[in-house]
Amino acid sequence: MAEKTVTAKQQEVQRIVDALAKAIAQHRLPPGMRLIEAQIVESLQANRNHVQVALQRLAMQKIVTIEPNRGALVAQPSAQEARDVFAARRAVERAIVEAITPAIMQQHAERIATQMTKERAATSSSDRRAIVRELSEFHCMLGEICGNAVLHDILDNLMVRSSLIVALYQRNDVPSCASDEHQQVLDALAAGQREQAVELMIEHLDELEGQLALHQEQNAEVNLREALAER
């Protein structure tokens, strides 16, 4: 019985996490917006304790910030922080791509093929979170297989921050990433054309940054109940 209760609680907390994360990812809850527990309880017909756990989980994921005397707010990376993160990604991912040889590509051929299959399946679906997850995983995979543990660790941190920035700032009318652009990078690497692969990766990251609405006004009033309504 206890095990079933714990499982039910975990599922309920995850439901709340998913609802809030989806609203943030779709820009229905803008950066800096205060997340009032009572309104979330009402909007999602949830238990207050479960809402508090969900907010703590989102805070651990750096999607939400919890401040003394203010409570929970949607995380608010600045536009300059977003630009800095992508500038850092260009430097780090250039080095990662330069480190990947055709031999490395052959060694990890099965993993690469599996990842691309997952990407195509995700991008052919309407599950935005799955799309973001799989397309982000491509970059993490290259960091892992390049053979430089320091570059890998740096990229992992940058990808966490990038995911938050994309969720908060990306325009809804464009995809977060393109699987065919990933394939072009892989093809160049497999052929030993590392300079071409670097050029393709930099163009890809430039495109991703260009999809961010970094000049979008974030001060408009938003109704939390309406934002959390299922869409």
TrEMBL record:
InterPro entries named in the record: GntR_C, TF_FadR/GntR_C, Tscrpt_reg_HTH_GntR, WH-like_DNA-bd_sf, WH_DNA-bd_sf
Domain HTH gntR-type: 10-77
Coiled coil: 198-225
Keyword terms of this UniProt record: Coiled coil, DNA-binding, Transcription, Transcription regulation
Keyword flag Transcription regulation: yes
Keyword Transcription regulation included in the entry's annotation: yes
Transmembrane stretches, start-end: none
Annotated protein name in UniProt: GntR family transcriptional regulator
Classification lineage: Bacteria, Pseudomonadati, Pseudomonadota, Gammaproteobacteria, Pseudomonadales
